Amino acid sequence: MQTSAVIPVLVIRDVAQARPIAEALVAGGLKVLEVTMRTPAALDVIREMKQVPGAIVGAGTVVSTDQFEQVMDAGAEFIVSPGLSEKLGERIVQSGVPYLPGVATAGDIMRGLDMGLTHFKFFPAETSGGLPALKALAAPFYQCKFCPTGGITEATAPDWLAFDPVLCVGGSWVATGTPAEMEAKARSATAMRG
Questions:
Q1: Catalytic residue among 31, 50, 121, 185, which?
Q2: Which of 6, 17, 54, 98 has the most other CB atoms within 10 Å of its CB?
Q3: pLDDT tier at 194 (50, 70, 90 boundaries)?
Q4: Among 23, 34, 48, 183, which one carries the catalytic annotation?
Q5: Catalytic site residue 121?
Q6: Quick check: 81 and 117 in contact, CB under 8 A?
Q7: Mean pLDDT (the chain, rounded)
Q8: Does residue 16 surpass a pLDDT of 70?
């Protein structure tokens, strides 16, 4: 979470696009890449992106222990889930793999704290009340750090990043356009942290 101000959230349907996208984002300074498990190609995309020097490739939208085993076999270096269940959370925590579970309520955060977690994905960020909601949640959970994801844009990312408990944001805007455009967006996103 401290490697990049923005973690690209990638939904890739064609494995042939994996390497050019990863190369463009890494060249622009965004080394941490979250490949969502939303397409049949996702496991092959993880394997392909892992071949790009400097890329730190993880799996997002992991919702079951079976998926967790599949993404680990594909070489995922971190795991992101849209929510937090005890079965999945405990399995990932036991593995020692970096894990960013999705939370939207105080109860979600407390369940994560019970598992020994202090870093969370605030998701879906905008529709869960946006920055005011995260500020309200972060106050009693002062020990926690967050990566808001869901509805974050290039225009709103700096506001989120200015809030101290936010270490990074997840966003899909950086992975649109041509490889050259993606690299330029990645450079802009990298500069957001200052």
A1: 121
A2: 6
A3: low
A4: 34
A5: yes
A6: no
A7: 97
A8: yes
